[in-house]
Specification:
Order of helices and strands: HHHHH
Number of helices: 5
Radius of gyration: 38 Å
Mean pLDDT: 82
Structural class: mainly alpha
Low-confidence stretches: none
Shape: elongated
Strand content: under 5%
C-alpha cells in the first residue's frame, strides 16, 4: 500500500491543465471602400497633365477644374497646388528683380511709357 500513497508514484504525472485565454468572437476585417482618387498616377497621366498645362489659356481652366473636382486624384491636386505656389513665387521674384534692376539703372516706369508713346 505504501507504493500507492507515496505521491502518486507509479502513475503517470498529471498535466498542468490551464484554461485557454479568453478569445473574443470572430469579427471580419473592415475593408474600406475603393477610392480611385488615392491611386498612383501613371507616367502617361503626368505627361497629359504637363501638355495641358503648357497651353496658355487651357492650363488655367484645367487647373481650376482639377482643383475643384472631387474626383481628381490626390497626387494631381497636391502637384497642382505646389506648381501654383512655385509659379506665384516665380512671378513675385521676377517682379522684385525687375524693380531692383530698374532702381539700379535709374529707369522709371514713366520714362519707359513716355518713350513708348513717342513712337
Amino acid at each position: 500500500m505504501d507504493q500507492y500513497n507515496n505521491n502518486n508514484q507509479g502513475y503517470a504525472p498529471q498535466p498542468n491543465y490551464q484554461q485557454p485565454p479568453y478569445q473574443p468572437p470572430y469579427q471580419p476585417v473592415y475593408q474600406q471602400p475603393y477610392d480611385k482618387t488615392k491611386e498612383v498616377m501613371s507616367v502617361g497621366s503626368y505627361i497629359v497633365m504637363f501638355i495641358l498645362s503648357a497651353i496658355p489659356v487651357v492650363n488655367v481652366i484645367c487647373w481650376i477644374v482639377w482643383l475643384v473636382s472631387s474626383n481628381t486624384n490626390k497626387n494631381k491636386k497636391n502637384f497642382l497646388i505646389a506648381y501654383i505656389v512655385m509659379t506665384v513665387i516665380g512671378i513675385i521674384l521676377s517682379a522684385i528683380a525687375v524693380a531692383v534692376i530698374m532702381a539700379i539703372t535709374g529707369a522709371s516706369i514713366y520714362d519707359i511709357l513716355d518713350s513708348a508713346s513717342a513712337f
